[in-house]
Amino acid sequence: MAESEGKSYGVIVNSFRELEPNYADFYRDELGRRNWAIGPVSLSNRRSEEKAGRGDSQLKEIAAALESWGGSFIWVVRKDPRTESESESEEEWLPVGFEDRTAEKGLIIRGWAPQILILEHEAVGGFVTHCGWNSTLEGITVGKAMVTWPVAAEQFYNEKLVTAVLGIGLPVEAEKWVRGTGDDEVIMAEGIEIAVRRLMEMARMAIEEGGSSHSSLSDLIDELKQRSHV
User: Fold this and answer.
1) Which of 5, 120, 208, 223 is the 20 to 30 A CA-CA neighbour of 36?
2) Which CDD domains match (predicted)?
3) pLDDT tens digit string along 35-70?
4) Which of 5-19, 79-93, 162-176 has the lowest mean pLDDT?
């Protein structure tokens, strides 16, 4: 991959400059590699219909936590293709009667889910995410604070961007994130809310005409046109 980047004309990135300007500058100035941030590409889908691997023991713990919590939730579970044919009554990861007991407050979606459409809904207040890059960008662009739960690969780096650099989420092991009695807790919650709203607006403006991502894509197209005539 590194060898291919060195030989390429440049790199197109699913991000927007306002989100990580220092990285874009480092890539260009220090590494000498051209890059165009043209995202978030998920926002290019304007129509609603276009927006649409943990083990059993871990899933059981999540189910127990959701039921104990008592709040409203949407739980998306991607089924293993090897068990696609099993009936709901045979799903060992799901506590017996869980869906009946939580029917008024919760919804389980098995398989693919229209994540952008769900996150955009005003009733959704937060997003528990493994910090895959697409999900991270989607959480930012719809203005939802994130509870981060990385499991592999670059997800841990994305978590650090969300929690330590951008300040718009907390890791799953965090002990508190509430508007409680302490002043520090209130300031923390309000600070996250402000940061989330600011980045959401930046993301939406980036893809509009005249925005950074829109301009970056236009510049790339113009350069490629010029090269085709050389």
Assistant:
1) 120
2) GT1_Gtf-like
3) 999 888 866 555 544 444 446 777 888 888 888 888
4) 79-93
For 48, counting Cβ atoms within 10 Å of its Cβ (0-12 exposed, 13-18 middle, 19+ buried), the class is exposed
In degrees and rounded to multiples of 5, residue 226 shows phi and psi of: -65, -40
Digit-coded pLDDT (tens) for 158-177: 999 999 999 888 887 654 44
Contact 72/40 with Cβ under 8 angstroms?
no
Residue 163 belongs to domain with CATH number: 3.40.50.2000
Query: Could you tell me if residue 32 is left (phi over 0), alpha (psi between -120 and 50 degrees) or otherwise beta?
Result: left
Does 17 fall in a domain? Answer: no
The number of angstroms, rounded, from the C-alpha of 3 to the middle of its chain's C-alpha atoms is 29
Give the CA angle between residues 23, 24, 28 to the nearest 5°: 115
- Other CB atoms within 10 Å distance of the CB of residue 106: 19
Burial class (CB in 10 A: 0-12, 13-18, 19+), 159: buried
Query: 222 lies in a domain?
Result: no
Tens of pLDDT, residue by residue over 175-184, are: 444 444 444 4
CB of 59 closer than 8 Å to CB of 94: yes
Distance of CA 156 to the CA centre of its chain: 13
Distance, CA of 92 to chain centre: 28
Range(s) of the domain holding residue 170? 45-52+114-206
Is the Cβ–Cβ distance between 116 and 51 less than 8 Å? yes
Residue 14: both structure tokens together: 């699913």
In a domain, 155, yes or no: yes
